[in-house]
Amino acid sequence: MSESREDKRARLAQAIGRGQRASAIFEDPLFVEGVEAVRDECIRTFRNSTPDETPLREEAYFKHRALTDVVRQLQNPVRSAELAQEELARMNAEEAQMRGKPGESREVA
Question: Under a CB-based contact definition with an 8 Å cutoff, are residues 10 and 88 in contact?
Fold first, then answer.
């Protein structure tokens, strides 16, 4: 069963809304500051650890990895929103083109 145009528009609008919320998080100075602080802490731990502090480096590695995963998860809706906007624009252009074709009147009774 094919998705109706209205359902598709609703799905695209939802993706765009999620992307906008995710973008707002990335633009929040407090979030940016927190991400940078954790990254800096992880790098400092790597640089300042001694050869026998393997567990400390591993902990910093996993912390950095988790932070990267969280950021990547938030980037997914942003990219999905970009794709949804492109799809919505394509749909709008197709509909405008269909409305503008000569010989295809759309009279409403």
Answer: no
**What are 106's two structure tokens?**
């759309």
60-90 pLDDT, tens digit per residue, is 999 999 999 999 999 999 999 999 999 999 9
Six token digits for residue 94: 């197709």
Query: DSSP label at 52?
Result: T
DSSP-derived letter for residue 8 is H
CB 72 within 8 A of CB 66: no
Three-state secondary-structure class, residue 26 = helix
Burial class (CB in 10 A: 0-12, 13-18, 19+), 19: buried
Rounded to two decimals, the pTM is 0.72
Asked if residue 12 lies in contact with residue 84, where contact means CB atoms within 8 angstroms, the answer is yes
Answer yes or no: is pLDDT of 52 > 90: yes
